[in-house]
Structure formats: structure tokens, C-alpha cells
Amino acid sequence: MAKSAPFVWLDGKLVPWEQATMHVATECVLRGENVFEGIRAYWSEAEQELFLFKHAEHIARLRQGAKIMRMTIPYTDAQIEAASLELIRACGYRGQVHYRPVAYFDMGNLTDYLPSEIRTGMFILAFSTPTTKQVHEGVTTCVSTWRRNSDLASPSRVKSGANYHNSRLAYIEARLNGFQIPILLNAAGKVAEGPGACFMMVRNGKIITPPVTADILESITRETLIGLVQAELGLEVIEREIDRTELYICDEAFFCGSGHEITPINSVDHYPVGEGKPGAITRRIQKLYFDVVCGAVPKYRHWLTPVWGGASRAAAE
Ligand code: PMP
After folding, report:
1. What separation in Å is there between the alpha carbon of 64 and the centre of ligand 1?
2. Is there a contact between 166 and 149 (Cβ–Cβ < 8 Å)?
3. What is the mean pLDDT of residues 268-278?
4. Which ligand 1 atom is nearest residue 223's CA?
5. 110 Cα–ligand 1 center, Å
6. pLDDT tens-digit map of 33-46
7. Residue 264: pLDDT above 80?
């Protein structure tokens, strides 16, 4: 059964799930011409409140992607935030949520590519999405035979639906070969990222992650962790190219992303990573990240936007 939700926000209003449809001739449907975000909202049991995590940073990235695509998003940041809150509240979520604001190209003639020639619409999906078993237990991975989209062809920096054709090919290959998640190298043969998350590894107590010029998405989680682990755990973070064979000898490794959160990597191409189970540093980073996103660390509360504004606390009392 596919996931569903009570409502979708579509072009300015909430509509029941069944009515959130789009014409088959839109560029969005035909060619995946959209730019989107995947953002989590975290539930704080202590405060009985739901918090959007780094919503503004995600919308800033959405606009960067739209700029590269020469797409004009017809809503302000304030309108997108209000719409996201309206949708999540309408769905009544009081637990972890993953929501996706999507700006899309509507119908046009064959070469109507200029923003003035084709309408841009927007929709937002929001699902109840608890943390997966994979985040607790870790995953098996392989190096994909597919290369990550090059910045010179279909830039990975743009979070466009069309780019996920590349992720999908890699995912399917990995799954058919008995692995859970692939790791994609870029055209230069260096480690890029996972199909839906960035990559980090630990070698000799240092965190190493590919630079933003390695054909990766400029991940909000990656950026968050680079700051957090240095400031809060005193760990050095190095942004540099990573060779394939380093994957086989690193001490720990994990994917990071809004959706995948912090997913430990237990093996790569059947080589165990460390002891073949989530490592101690990865566990410390997970703990820190989950504390921060749930609002337990006052210093980082400015990254959070409350959804209910105390309403659900009042309801619970
Ligand atoms: N890379 C890809 C290809 C992704 O789809 C995602 C998920 N948005 C990420 C990295 C992680 O990005 P973020 O931390 O902003 O969610």
C-alpha cells in the first residue's frame, strides 16, 4: 500500500488526498521538471510539540535550485512556511513528519522553457514518517556501477525530480544484488553520495566527507553535522575527495540526510566497516543530532519552527 495523507497543499489550497491530481501533460509529470525539498519535523515528547527542522534553510536551497532551472516560484518564503504549517496541522500530525514542498512546471508547448512561457505551480506533501529500522541497525551498501549526475549534465546540486532517475537506477541495481543502499561515485571516480543522502566516514577519529564540488546535493544535514560535531563533540571534519578503496578500510561510515537521518553503514561491497555494526562515533553523532532536532539543546533552538505553538500541549493537559 502506498503512503497517503489526509490532505495535500496544491496551488494555494488544501485539498483532500484523492483530489490532489495533476494533468498527465504537465512538464512535471512528463519530464520530472520540478524542484523540491524533503524536510523533517520532529516531535518532542517532553514539550508535546512538533518542530520543523531548518525549514528556512531548505527553502533557500529550493530557491537556489529554481534559480539554476530558471524557474520563478510564485510564492514568498512566508507563504511557503505558512502553507507547510497549515498542511501539517490539517493532517493532525503529532509525531515525526517528512514533508516535501515541490515547485513544478505546468503544461507548455514542446519548447516553452522560459519562465515567461510556462506556469510554475507548487504543491506540498506531508507524511507521517517515523525513523526507520535502518537508522538503528545500519545498512549494507555497495559501490554502484552508475555514476552520480555530473554538474555538467544534470547538476546534482539541483534537487529536481528528474535527477532521481539516476538515484533510482542505482537503488534498483543495489537491491537486486542483495544490498540495501548504493554509494555512487562521480564521473571522476571519487565518492559522491548515496541516492538520497550524503556520505561521511571516520578514519583515525576524524570525519571525512566529499566536498560540495563532488557532484553532491548541498545537503542541509551534512552542513549541520559539519558544524555540530566540531562544536559539540570536538571532532575534526575534513572535506576532501574520497577514493573507492577508502570505503573498504574506514573505521566507520554513515549516510546523512533529512530523510535517511543518520544511517550507519555496516559494510561496503561485503567489506565490513569497522566491526560490521554501527560504530561508537556514529552513535554519538546520532544522539547529538536527535537531541538537537527535537529541541533538547537550547543553543540550537533557532533551527526549529514550532508547528502547534503550544496548542497540543494544552490539548494534552
Ligand atoms: N543527496 C541526495 C541525492 C538527496 O536526495 C538528499 C536528501 N535531500 C541528500 C543528499 C541530503 O540532503 P539533506 O540533508 O538536505 O536532506
Report:
1. 14
2. yes
3. 98
4. 14
5. 31
6. 999 999 999 999 99
7. yes
Residue 103 CB contacts under 8 Å (≥ 6 apart), including other chains = 34, 35, 36, 62, 66, 71, 73, 120, 121, 122
* Structural domain contains residue 298: no
The CB density around residue 79, as the number of other CB atoms within 10 Å, is 13
CATH code for the domain in which residue 247 is found: 3.20.10.10
Indicate the pLDDT class of residue 313, thresholds 50, 70 and 90: very low
CB-based pocket (< 6 A), ligand 1:
38, 159, 193, 196-198, 216-217, 219-222, 257-259
Per the confidence metrics, is the pTM higher than 0.70?
A: yes
Task: Give the distance (Å) from ligand 1 centre to CA of residue 196.
Answer: 5
- Work out which ligand 1 atom sits closest to the CA atom of 38: 8
Whether 111 and 157 share a structural domain: no
Q: Percentage of the chain surpassing pLDDT 70?
A: 97
Contact between residue 16 and residue 87 where contact means Cβ atoms under 8 Å apart: no
Instruction: Please compute the mean of the pLDDT values over residues 266-291 and round it to a whole number.
Output: 98
| Number of domains observed in the structure of the chain | 2
Give yes or no: residues 31 and 125 share one domain.
Answer: yes
In angstroms, what is the span from residue 257 Cα to ligand 1's centroid? 5
Phi first, then psi: what are they for 136, rounded to 5°?
A: -80, -40
